[in-house]
Amino acid sequence: MLLTELTSITGIDLETTFRALQVIVGPERVSITQADRLQHACDQSSHAEHLPDLVVWPQTTTEVSAILAYANTVRLPVTAWGAGTSLEGNPVPVQGGIVLDFQRMNQILAVHAADFQVTVQPGMLYKDMNKTLARHGLFFAPDPGANASIGGMVANNAAGIRTVKHGATRDNVLALEVVLANGEVLRTGARSVKQSAGYDLTHLFVGSEGTLGIVTEATLKLAPLPEHFSAVIAAFPTVEIAAEVVFAIIGSGLEPTALELLDSQALTVLNSEADFDLTVAPTLFMEFSGASEASLAEELVLVEAICREHDVQSFQAGIGREARNRLWQARHRFFETSQRYYRGYAYLLTDVAVPISQFPALVAAANQIMARLNCQGTIIGHAGDGNLHTAIFFPPGDDEARAHAAQVNDHLVERALALGGTCTGEHGVGLGKQKYMLAEHGPVALNLMRQLKATLDPNGILNPGKVLAW
Ligand SMILES: Cc1cc2nc3c(=O)[nH]c(=O)nc-3n(C[C@H](O)[C@H](O)[C@H](O)COP(=O)(O)OP(=O)(O)OC[C@H]3O[C@@H](n4cnc5c(N)ncnc54)[C@H](O)[C@@H]3O)c2cc1C
Protein backbone atom coordinates (compact mmCIF):
# COMPACT_ATOMS: atom_id res chain seq x y z
CA MET A 1 0.00 0.00 0.00
CA LEU A 2 1.28 3.47 -0.81
CA LEU A 3 1.56 5.77 2.15
CA THR A 4 -0.25 8.46 0.21
CA GLU A 5 -3.32 6.17 -0.06
CA LEU A 6 -3.64 5.84 3.71
CA THR A 7 -6.31 7.57 5.68
CA SER A 8 -5.69 8.15 9.33
CA ILE A 9 -8.26 7.28 11.95
CA THR A 10 -7.13 9.99 14.31
CA GLY A 11 -6.51 12.60 11.63
CA ILE A 12 -2.75 12.47 12.21
CA ASP A 13 -0.19 12.90 9.49
CA LEU A 14 0.35 9.18 8.99
CA GLU A 15 3.28 9.45 6.66
CA THR A 16 5.27 11.61 9.07
CA THR A 17 4.36 9.34 12.00
CA PHE A 18 5.27 6.21 10.07
CA ARG A 19 8.68 7.64 9.18
CA ALA A 20 9.30 8.88 12.74
CA LEU A 21 8.55 5.45 14.20
CA GLN A 22 10.77 3.80 11.59
CA VAL A 23 13.62 5.99 12.77
CA ILE A 24 13.07 4.66 16.33
CA VAL A 25 12.61 0.93 15.69
CA GLY A 26 13.86 0.43 12.13
CA PRO A 27 11.84 -0.29 9.00
CA GLU A 28 10.75 -3.85 9.89
CA ARG A 29 8.90 -3.28 13.14
CA VAL A 30 6.29 -0.67 12.20
CA SER A 31 3.25 -1.68 10.19
CA ILE A 32 0.35 0.07 8.57
CA THR A 33 -0.98 -2.98 6.73
CA GLN A 34 -4.67 -3.72 7.05
CA ALA A 35 -3.88 -7.28 8.19
CA ASP A 36 -1.69 -6.12 11.09
CA ARG A 37 -4.13 -3.39 12.07
CA LEU A 38 -7.04 -5.86 12.01
CA GLN A 39 -5.13 -8.28 14.24
CA HIS A 40 -4.97 -5.53 16.85
CA ALA A 41 -8.54 -4.25 16.55
CA CYS A 42 -10.37 -6.51 19.01
CA ASP A 43 -9.80 -8.71 22.02
CA GLN A 44 -11.77 -11.83 23.01
CA SER A 45 -14.79 -9.87 24.23
CA SER A 46 -17.89 -8.95 22.26
CA HIS A 47 -16.97 -5.23 22.18
CA ALA A 48 -16.81 -3.68 18.71
CA GLU A 49 -13.47 -3.63 16.91
CA HIS A 50 -11.49 -0.44 16.26
CA LEU A 51 -8.46 -0.30 13.99
CA PRO A 52 -5.25 1.35 15.17
CA ASP A 53 -3.44 3.59 12.67
CA LEU A 54 -0.13 1.76 13.13
CA VAL A 55 1.28 -1.26 14.94
CA VAL A 56 4.80 -1.17 16.41
CA TRP A 57 6.79 -4.05 17.92
CA PRO A 58 9.36 -2.58 20.34
CA GLN A 59 12.32 -4.66 21.51
CA THR A 60 13.81 -2.51 24.27
CA THR A 61 12.77 -0.11 27.00
CA THR A 62 14.72 2.60 25.20
CA GLU A 63 12.55 2.13 22.12
CA VAL A 64 9.35 2.22 24.21
CA SER A 65 10.56 5.40 25.86
CA ALA A 66 11.35 7.06 22.50
CA ILE A 67 7.97 6.01 21.04
CA LEU A 68 6.08 7.46 24.00
CA ALA A 69 8.09 10.67 24.00
CA TYR A 70 7.25 11.12 20.31
CA ALA A 71 3.56 10.19 20.70
CA ASN A 72 3.21 12.52 23.67
CA THR A 73 4.64 15.41 21.67
CA VAL A 74 2.24 14.89 18.76
CA ARG A 75 -0.68 13.84 21.05
CA LEU A 76 -1.06 10.41 19.50
CA PRO A 77 -2.91 7.59 21.38
CA VAL A 78 -0.75 4.62 22.43
CA THR A 79 -2.37 1.35 23.46
CA ALA A 80 -0.24 -1.51 24.79
CA TRP A 81 -0.96 -5.00 23.50
CA GLY A 82 0.03 -8.27 25.18
CA ALA A 83 -1.77 -11.32 23.82
CA GLY A 84 -5.14 -9.66 23.15
CA THR A 85 -7.04 -12.17 25.34
CA SER A 86 -8.89 -9.57 27.43
CA LEU A 87 -12.61 -9.98 27.96
CA GLU A 88 -13.71 -6.36 28.48
CA GLY A 89 -12.27 -4.49 25.47
CA ASN A 90 -9.20 -3.46 27.51
CA PRO A 91 -6.62 -3.37 24.64
CA VAL A 92 -9.00 -2.27 21.86
CA PRO A 93 -7.54 0.98 20.43
CA VAL A 94 -10.83 2.87 20.42
CA GLN A 95 -9.19 6.14 19.42
CA GLY A 96 -6.80 4.65 16.86
CA GLY A 97 -3.18 5.77 17.05
CA ILE A 98 -0.33 3.37 17.84
CA VAL A 99 -0.68 -0.16 19.17
CA LEU A 100 2.51 -1.21 20.97
CA ASP A 101 2.68 -4.99 20.62
CA PHE A 102 5.04 -6.56 23.18
CA GLN A 103 5.42 -9.88 21.41
CA ARG A 104 9.14 -9.25 20.83
CA MET A 105 9.91 -8.26 24.42
CA ASN A 106 9.35 -11.77 25.70
CA GLN A 107 12.49 -12.79 27.58
CA ILE A 108 13.01 -14.08 31.09
CA LEU A 109 15.69 -11.65 32.33
CA ALA A 110 16.59 -13.46 35.58
CA VAL A 111 15.36 -16.40 37.63
CA HIS A 112 16.11 -15.73 41.30
CA ALA A 113 15.40 -19.32 42.28
CA ALA A 114 16.68 -18.99 45.84
CA ASP A 115 14.25 -16.12 46.44
CA PHE A 116 11.36 -17.70 44.51
CA GLN A 117 11.27 -14.78 42.04
CA VAL A 118 11.59 -14.09 38.34
CA THR A 119 12.20 -10.90 36.36
CA VAL A 120 10.62 -10.87 32.91
CA GLN A 121 9.80 -8.68 29.96
CA PRO A 122 6.10 -7.87 29.47
CA GLY A 123 5.53 -9.89 26.29
CA MET A 124 6.46 -13.16 28.00
CA LEU A 125 3.48 -15.53 27.86
CA TYR A 126 2.87 -16.92 31.31
CA LYS A 127 2.38 -20.52 30.17
CA ASP A 128 5.72 -20.43 28.35
CA MET A 129 7.31 -18.83 31.40
CA ASN A 130 5.93 -21.56 33.65
CA LYS A 131 7.36 -24.27 31.40
CA THR A 132 10.83 -22.75 31.88
CA LEU A 133 10.30 -22.21 35.59
CA ALA A 134 9.25 -25.85 36.07
CA ARG A 135 12.92 -26.76 35.60
CA HIS A 136 13.56 -24.85 38.82
CA GLY A 137 10.59 -26.48 40.58
CA LEU A 138 8.75 -23.12 40.57
CA PHE A 139 5.70 -21.54 38.94
CA PHE A 140 3.86 -18.21 38.70
CA ALA A 141 0.52 -19.01 40.27
CA PRO A 142 -2.10 -16.59 38.86
CA ASP A 143 -3.62 -18.66 36.07
CA PRO A 144 -6.18 -16.95 33.82
CA GLY A 145 -6.55 -19.98 31.57
CA ALA A 146 -5.80 -18.13 28.33
CA ASN A 147 -2.11 -17.85 27.42
CA ALA A 148 -1.89 -14.22 28.47
CA SER A 149 1.24 -12.09 28.57
CA ILE A 150 2.75 -10.93 31.84
CA GLY A 151 2.27 -7.27 30.79
CA GLY A 152 -1.43 -7.92 30.14
CA MET A 153 -1.84 -9.82 33.39
CA VAL A 154 -0.17 -7.04 35.37
CA ALA A 155 -2.19 -4.35 33.58
CA ASN A 156 -5.52 -6.17 34.13
CA ASN A 157 -4.61 -7.58 37.56
CA ALA A 158 -5.58 -10.97 36.17
CA ALA A 159 -6.50 -13.82 38.46
CA GLY A 160 -7.75 -17.34 37.97
CA ILE A 161 -8.20 -20.79 39.36
CA ARG A 162 -5.18 -20.61 41.70
CA THR A 163 -6.10 -17.24 43.24
CA VAL A 164 -7.95 -18.91 46.10
CA LYS A 165 -4.58 -20.09 47.44
CA HIS A 166 -1.96 -17.83 45.86
CA GLY A 167 -3.73 -14.50 45.29
CA ALA A 168 -4.23 -12.47 42.10
CA THR A 169 -1.44 -10.97 39.96
CA ARG A 170 -1.39 -7.90 42.25
CA ASP A 171 -0.39 -10.09 45.21
CA ASN A 172 2.53 -11.51 43.24
CA VAL A 173 4.20 -8.40 41.78
CA LEU A 174 7.21 -7.09 43.69
CA ALA A 175 8.74 -4.54 41.33
CA LEU A 176 8.18 -2.96 37.93
CA GLU A 177 9.96 -0.95 35.31
CA VAL A 178 7.46 1.48 33.81
CA VAL A 179 7.68 4.00 30.97
CA LEU A 180 5.56 7.09 31.61
CA ALA A 181 3.54 8.89 28.96
CA ASN A 182 6.33 11.43 28.41
CA GLY A 183 8.92 8.70 27.90
CA GLU A 184 10.52 8.88 31.36
CA VAL A 185 11.47 5.49 32.80
CA LEU A 186 10.94 4.65 36.46
CA ARG A 187 11.51 1.65 38.68
CA THR A 188 9.04 0.83 41.42
CA GLY A 189 9.24 -1.57 44.37
CA ALA A 190 12.12 -3.84 45.32
CA ARG A 191 12.98 -7.55 45.38
CA SER A 192 12.49 -7.80 49.15
CA VAL A 193 9.15 -9.35 50.01
CA LYS A 194 8.56 -6.73 52.69
CA GLN A 195 8.49 -3.14 51.45
CA SER A 196 7.43 -0.09 53.40
CA ALA A 197 9.23 2.80 51.71
CA GLY A 198 6.74 5.45 50.72
CA TYR A 199 3.73 5.30 48.43
CA ASP A 200 3.12 1.98 46.70
CA LEU A 201 3.65 2.91 43.07
CA THR A 202 4.00 -0.72 41.98
CA HIS A 203 0.41 -1.48 42.83
CA LEU A 204 -0.81 1.79 41.36
CA PHE A 205 0.26 0.51 37.95
CA VAL A 206 -1.06 -3.03 38.52
CA GLY A 207 -4.65 -3.09 37.26
CA SER A 208 -4.36 0.30 35.51
CA GLU A 209 -4.90 -1.29 32.08
CA GLY A 210 -2.08 0.60 30.41
CA THR A 211 -3.72 3.97 31.15
CA LEU A 212 -1.04 5.27 33.56
CA GLY A 213 2.20 3.85 32.18
CA ILE A 214 3.67 1.06 30.09
CA VAL A 215 5.25 -1.89 31.90
CA THR A 216 8.59 -2.92 30.38
CA GLU A 217 9.81 -5.27 33.12
CA ALA A 218 8.21 -7.07 36.06
CA THR A 219 9.65 -8.94 39.03
CA LEU A 220 7.19 -11.56 40.20
CA LYS A 221 6.81 -13.84 43.21
CA LEU A 222 6.83 -17.55 42.45
CA ALA A 223 5.52 -20.58 44.29
CA PRO A 224 7.13 -24.02 44.59
CA LEU A 225 5.51 -26.61 42.33
CA PRO A 226 3.49 -28.93 44.57
CA GLU A 227 4.41 -32.60 44.42
CA HIS A 228 1.14 -34.25 45.40
CA PHE A 229 -2.36 -33.40 44.21
CA SER A 230 -5.90 -34.54 44.68
CA ALA A 231 -8.86 -33.59 42.53
CA VAL A 232 -12.55 -33.72 43.39
CA ILE A 233 -15.63 -33.41 41.22
CA ALA A 234 -18.78 -33.11 43.35
CA ALA A 235 -22.32 -32.61 42.00
CA PHE A 236 -25.18 -31.07 44.03
CA PRO A 237 -28.98 -30.78 43.72
CA THR A 238 -28.96 -26.98 43.20
CA VAL A 239 -26.47 -24.30 42.32
CA GLU A 240 -27.31 -22.52 45.57
CA ILE A 241 -26.34 -25.62 47.60
CA ALA A 242 -23.12 -25.94 45.62
CA ALA A 243 -22.36 -22.31 46.53
CA GLU A 244 -23.03 -23.04 50.22
CA VAL A 245 -20.52 -25.90 50.05
CA VAL A 246 -17.92 -23.42 48.77
CA PHE A 247 -18.48 -21.29 51.85
CA ALA A 248 -18.41 -24.37 54.12
CA ILE A 249 -15.12 -25.61 52.65
CA ILE A 250 -13.35 -22.27 52.93
CA GLY A 251 -14.86 -21.74 56.40
CA SER A 252 -13.61 -25.15 57.61
CA GLY A 253 -10.00 -24.06 57.22
CA LEU A 254 -9.31 -26.36 54.27
CA GLU A 255 -7.05 -24.68 51.75
CA PRO A 256 -8.01 -25.76 48.24
CA THR A 257 -5.58 -24.75 45.51
CA ALA A 258 -8.60 -24.33 43.25
CA LEU A 259 -12.35 -24.33 43.86
CA GLU A 260 -14.54 -23.73 40.82
CA LEU A 261 -18.33 -23.77 40.44
CA LEU A 262 -20.19 -24.76 37.27
CA ASP A 263 -23.98 -24.89 36.87
CA SER A 264 -25.88 -27.76 35.17
CA GLN A 265 -25.83 -26.07 31.78
CA ALA A 266 -22.04 -25.74 32.01
CA LEU A 267 -21.86 -29.51 32.52
CA THR A 268 -24.09 -30.06 29.49
CA VAL A 269 -21.69 -27.88 27.50
CA LEU A 270 -18.64 -29.77 28.77
CA ASN A 271 -20.23 -33.14 28.02
CA SER A 272 -20.94 -32.03 24.46
CA GLU A 273 -17.26 -32.70 23.73
CA ALA A 274 -16.54 -36.35 23.11
CA ASP A 275 -14.35 -37.20 26.07
CA PHE A 276 -16.54 -36.03 28.98
CA ASP A 277 -19.40 -37.82 30.66
CA LEU A 278 -19.95 -35.89 33.87
CA THR A 279 -23.15 -35.82 35.93
CA VAL A 280 -25.33 -32.97 34.64
CA ALA A 281 -25.87 -31.03 37.87
CA PRO A 282 -24.39 -28.00 39.60
CA THR A 283 -20.81 -29.09 40.24
CA LEU A 284 -17.71 -28.09 42.15
CA PHE A 285 -14.26 -28.78 40.71
CA MET A 286 -11.70 -28.78 43.50
CA GLU A 287 -7.99 -29.29 43.77
CA PHE A 288 -5.87 -29.75 46.86
CA SER A 289 -2.12 -30.08 47.03
CA GLY A 290 0.11 -31.16 49.86
CA ALA A 291 3.38 -32.54 51.10
CA SER A 292 2.24 -36.18 51.05
CA GLU A 293 -0.49 -38.42 49.72
CA ALA A 294 -1.38 -39.34 53.31
CA SER A 295 -2.17 -35.71 54.22
CA LEU A 296 -4.23 -35.35 51.04
CA ALA A 297 -6.21 -38.49 51.85
CA GLU A 298 -7.05 -37.01 55.27
CA GLU A 299 -8.21 -33.76 53.65
CA LEU A 300 -10.39 -35.67 51.22
CA VAL A 301 -12.23 -37.35 54.11
CA LEU A 302 -13.18 -33.92 55.45
CA VAL A 303 -14.14 -32.61 52.00
CA GLU A 304 -16.36 -35.63 51.42
CA ALA A 305 -18.02 -35.21 54.82
CA ILE A 306 -18.86 -31.57 54.03
CA CYS A 307 -20.24 -32.54 50.63
CA ARG A 308 -22.36 -35.36 52.11
CA GLU A 309 -23.82 -32.93 54.67
CA HIS A 310 -25.03 -30.93 51.64
CA ASP A 311 -26.78 -33.78 49.78
CA VAL A 312 -23.99 -34.39 47.30
CA GLN A 313 -25.32 -36.36 44.32
CA SER A 314 -22.02 -37.67 43.08
CA PHE A 315 -18.55 -37.40 44.56
CA GLN A 316 -15.50 -38.44 42.55
CA ALA A 317 -12.10 -37.97 44.15
CA GLY A 318 -8.73 -38.96 42.77
CA ILE A 319 -5.22 -38.53 44.00
CA GLY A 320 -2.45 -37.93 41.52
CA ARG A 321 -1.40 -35.82 38.60
CA GLU A 322 -3.57 -37.58 36.04
CA ALA A 323 -6.84 -37.00 37.94
CA ARG A 324 -5.90 -33.37 38.40
CA ASN A 325 -4.84 -32.76 34.81
CA ARG A 326 -8.10 -34.17 33.47
CA LEU A 327 -10.09 -31.85 35.72
CA TRP A 328 -8.31 -28.71 34.54
CA GLN A 329 -8.26 -29.76 30.94
CA ALA A 330 -12.06 -29.69 31.10
CA ARG A 331 -12.23 -26.37 32.98
CA HIS A 332 -9.66 -24.61 30.78
CA ARG A 333 -11.40 -25.68 27.61
CA PHE A 334 -14.72 -24.38 28.85
CA PHE A 335 -14.72 -21.03 27.00
CA GLU A 336 -13.80 -22.63 23.66
CA THR A 337 -16.25 -25.48 24.22
CA SER A 338 -19.03 -22.98 24.96
CA GLN A 339 -18.29 -21.08 21.75
CA ARG A 340 -18.57 -24.31 19.77
CA TYR A 341 -21.74 -25.34 21.63
CA TYR A 342 -23.43 -21.98 20.94
CA ARG A 343 -21.91 -21.67 17.45
CA GLY A 344 -22.99 -18.51 15.61
CA TYR A 345 -24.32 -16.85 18.77
CA ALA A 346 -23.18 -13.52 20.17
CA TYR A 347 -22.24 -13.51 23.87
CA LEU A 348 -21.84 -11.34 26.92
CA LEU A 349 -19.56 -12.41 29.77
CA THR A 350 -20.11 -11.02 33.24
CA ASP A 351 -17.55 -10.85 36.05
CA VAL A 352 -18.42 -9.81 39.59
CA ALA A 353 -16.95 -10.72 42.97
CA VAL A 354 -18.19 -10.61 46.57
CA PRO A 355 -16.91 -11.58 50.03
CA ILE A 356 -17.02 -15.37 50.30
CA SER A 357 -19.84 -15.31 52.90
CA GLN A 358 -22.05 -13.57 50.32
CA PHE A 359 -21.22 -15.94 47.46
CA PRO A 360 -24.34 -18.14 47.91
CA ALA A 361 -26.55 -15.02 47.73
CA LEU A 362 -24.80 -13.86 44.56
CA VAL A 363 -25.19 -17.27 42.91
CA ALA A 364 -28.88 -17.37 43.85
CA ALA A 365 -29.34 -13.90 42.31
CA ALA A 366 -27.59 -14.95 39.08
CA ASN A 367 -29.71 -18.07 38.82
CA GLN A 368 -32.95 -16.15 39.37
CA ILE A 369 -32.26 -13.30 36.99
CA MET A 370 -31.08 -15.59 34.18
CA ALA A 371 -34.26 -17.69 34.55
CA ARG A 372 -36.55 -14.63 34.82
CA LEU A 373 -35.16 -13.07 31.65
CA ASN A 374 -35.06 -16.42 29.87
CA CYS A 375 -31.34 -16.11 29.12
CA GLN A 376 -29.41 -18.99 27.59
CA GLY A 377 -25.99 -19.63 28.99
CA THR A 378 -23.95 -20.76 31.93
CA ILE A 379 -22.98 -19.75 35.44
CA ILE A 380 -19.40 -20.51 36.38
CA GLY A 381 -17.00 -19.01 38.85
CA HIS A 382 -13.73 -19.02 40.69
CA ALA A 383 -15.96 -19.75 43.65
CA GLY A 384 -13.19 -20.06 46.23
CA ASP A 385 -12.52 -16.34 45.94
CA GLY A 386 -16.14 -15.22 45.58
CA ASN A 387 -15.81 -14.50 41.84
CA LEU A 388 -18.78 -15.31 39.60
CA HIS A 389 -19.09 -15.28 35.80
CA THR A 390 -22.14 -15.80 33.66
CA ALA A 391 -21.80 -16.36 29.92
CA ILE A 392 -25.00 -15.38 28.13
CA PHE A 393 -25.44 -16.42 24.51
CA PHE A 394 -28.00 -14.98 22.08
CA PRO A 395 -28.62 -14.85 18.33
CA PRO A 396 -26.73 -11.80 17.01
CA GLY A 397 -29.86 -10.21 15.51
CA ASP A 398 -32.08 -10.72 18.57
CA ASP A 399 -32.18 -7.26 20.16
CA GLU A 400 -34.49 -8.32 22.96
CA ALA A 401 -32.17 -11.16 24.02
CA ARG A 402 -29.18 -8.80 23.81
CA ALA A 403 -31.02 -6.30 26.04
CA HIS A 404 -31.81 -9.09 28.52
CA ALA A 405 -28.12 -10.06 28.65
CA ALA A 406 -27.23 -6.43 29.41
CA GLN A 407 -29.89 -6.41 32.15
CA VAL A 408 -28.33 -9.49 33.75
CA ASN A 409 -24.98 -7.69 33.77
CA ASP A 410 -26.52 -4.58 35.39
CA HIS A 411 -28.43 -6.64 37.92
CA LEU A 412 -25.40 -8.72 38.93
CA VAL A 413 -23.22 -5.65 39.39
CA GLU A 414 -25.93 -4.03 41.50
CA ARG A 415 -26.22 -7.17 43.67
CA ALA A 416 -22.45 -7.57 43.97
CA LEU A 417 -22.05 -3.95 45.11
CA ALA A 418 -24.91 -4.32 47.58
CA LEU A 419 -23.21 -7.46 48.97
CA GLY A 420 -19.94 -5.57 49.54
CA GLY A 421 -18.24 -6.65 46.32
CA THR A 422 -17.03 -5.24 43.04
CA CYS A 423 -18.21 -4.80 39.44
CA THR A 424 -15.16 -6.72 38.18
CA GLY A 425 -13.18 -9.39 39.98
CA GLU A 426 -10.54 -9.95 37.31
CA HIS A 427 -11.42 -8.85 33.77
CA GLY A 428 -10.92 -5.15 34.52
CA VAL A 429 -12.96 -2.09 33.62
CA GLY A 430 -12.01 -1.85 29.94
CA LEU A 431 -14.95 -0.52 27.98
CA GLY A 432 -17.81 -2.41 29.56
CA LYS A 433 -17.52 -1.58 33.26
CA GLN A 434 -16.97 2.17 33.14
CA LYS A 435 -20.63 2.91 33.76
CA TYR A 436 -20.42 1.21 37.19
CA MET A 437 -17.34 3.02 38.47
CA LEU A 438 -19.23 5.86 40.16
CA ALA A 439 -21.55 3.47 41.99
CA GLU A 440 -18.59 1.39 43.16
CA HIS A 441 -16.15 4.12 44.15
CA GLY A 442 -18.15 7.31 44.75
CA PRO A 443 -17.35 10.80 43.43
CA VAL A 444 -14.43 11.64 45.73
CA ALA A 445 -12.44 8.49 44.87
CA LEU A 446 -13.22 8.92 41.18
CA ASN A 447 -12.05 12.50 41.26
CA LEU A 448 -8.78 11.37 42.84
CA MET A 449 -8.39 8.72 40.12
CA ARG A 450 -8.91 11.41 37.47
CA GLN A 451 -6.28 13.59 39.11
CA LEU A 452 -3.82 10.66 39.12
CA LYS A 453 -4.48 10.08 35.44
CA ALA A 454 -4.03 13.78 34.65
CA THR A 455 -0.74 13.85 36.59
CA LEU A 456 0.75 10.76 34.96
CA ASP A 457 -0.70 11.25 31.48
CA PRO A 458 -1.65 14.94 31.10
CA ASN A 459 -2.23 14.65 27.34
CA GLY A 460 -4.39 11.54 27.71
CA ILE A 461 -2.40 9.46 25.20
CA LEU A 462 -2.28 6.17 27.14
CA ASN A 463 -5.07 3.76 26.17
CA PRO A 464 -7.62 6.59 25.89
CA GLY A 465 -11.27 5.68 26.28
CA LYS A 466 -10.64 3.12 29.04
CA VAL A 467 -11.30 2.91 32.78
CA LEU A 468 -12.19 6.60 33.30
CA ALA A 469 -13.28 7.80 29.91
CA TRP A 470 -16.18 9.99 30.98
C1 LIG B 1 -10.56 -18.37 27.45
C2 LIG B 1 -10.23 -17.21 28.34
C3 LIG B 1 -10.24 -17.38 29.70
C4 LIG B 1 -9.90 -16.32 30.53
N1 LIG B 1 -9.91 -16.52 31.88
C5 LIG B 1 -9.51 -15.53 32.69
C6 LIG B 1 -9.43 -15.75 34.11
O1 LIG B 1 -9.73 -16.82 34.60
N2 LIG B 1 -9.00 -14.72 34.86
C7 LIG B 1 -8.64 -13.51 34.34
O2 LIG B 1 -8.21 -12.63 35.08
N3 LIG B 1 -8.73 -13.28 33.03
C8 LIG B 1 -9.13 -14.25 32.20
N4 LIG B 1 -9.19 -14.02 30.85
C9 LIG B 1 -8.90 -12.67 30.34
C10 LIG B 1 -7.43 -12.40 29.94
O3 LIG B 1 -6.70 -13.58 29.67
C11 LIG B 1 -6.71 -11.59 31.00
O4 LIG B 1 -7.36 -10.36 31.22
C12 LIG B 1 -5.24 -11.29 30.69
O5 LIG B 1 -4.66 -10.59 31.74
C13 LIG B 1 -5.05 -10.49 29.40
O6 LIG B 1 -3.68 -10.56 29.06
P1 LIG B 1 -3.18 -10.27 27.58
O7 LIG B 1 -1.72 -10.52 27.53
O8 LIG B 1 -4.01 -10.99 26.61
O9 LIG B 1 -3.41 -8.71 27.53
P2 LIG B 1 -4.15 -7.81 26.46
O10 LIG B 1 -5.56 -8.29 26.31
O11 LIG B 1 -3.33 -7.70 25.25
O12 LIG B 1 -4.14 -6.43 27.22
C14 LIG B 1 -4.77 -6.28 28.46
C15 LIG B 1 -4.59 -4.87 28.98
O13 LIG B 1 -3.25 -4.70 29.36
C16 LIG B 1 -2.67 -3.59 28.70
N5 LIG B 1 -1.28 -3.95 28.50
C17 LIG B 1 -0.78 -4.99 27.80
N6 LIG B 1 0.56 -5.01 27.90
C18 LIG B 1 0.89 -3.96 28.68
C19 LIG B 1 2.13 -3.42 29.12
N7 LIG B 1 3.29 -3.96 28.81
N8 LIG B 1 2.10 -2.31 29.90
C20 LIG B 1 0.95 -1.71 30.22
N9 LIG B 1 -0.25 -2.17 29.82
C21 LIG B 1 -0.26 -3.29 29.06
C22 LIG B 1 -3.50 -3.43 27.45
O14 LIG B 1 -3.46 -2.12 26.94
C23 LIG B 1 -4.88 -3.78 27.98
O15 LIG B 1 -5.45 -2.68 28.63
C24 LIG B 1 -9.55 -15.07 29.98
C25 LIG B 1 -9.55 -14.89 28.60
C26 LIG B 1 -9.89 -15.94 27.78
C27 LIG B 1 -9.88 -15.73 26.30
From the helix content, strand content and strand pairing, which structural class follows? alpha+beta
Bound ligands, named by name, code or SMILES: flavin-adenine dinucleotide
Tell me the CATH topology of the largest domain: Uridine Diphospho-n-acetylenolpyruvylglucosamine Reductase, domain 3
| CA-CA gap between termini | 36 Å
Q: Do you know the CATH architecture of the largest domain?
A: 2-Layer Sandwich
* Uncertain stretches: none
Shape: globular
Rounded to the nearest angstrom, the radius of gyration is 23 Å
The CATH C-level class name of the largest domain: Alpha Beta
Give the strand tally.
19
Instruction: Summarize model confidence as the mean pLDDT.
Output: 93
Hey, roughly how much beta strand do the residues contain?
Answer: 15-25%
**Helix fraction by DSSP (H/I, runs of at least 4):** 25-40%
Helix count, DSSP H or I runs of 4 or more residues = 15
Largest sheet: 8 strands, antiparallel
Total separate domains:
4
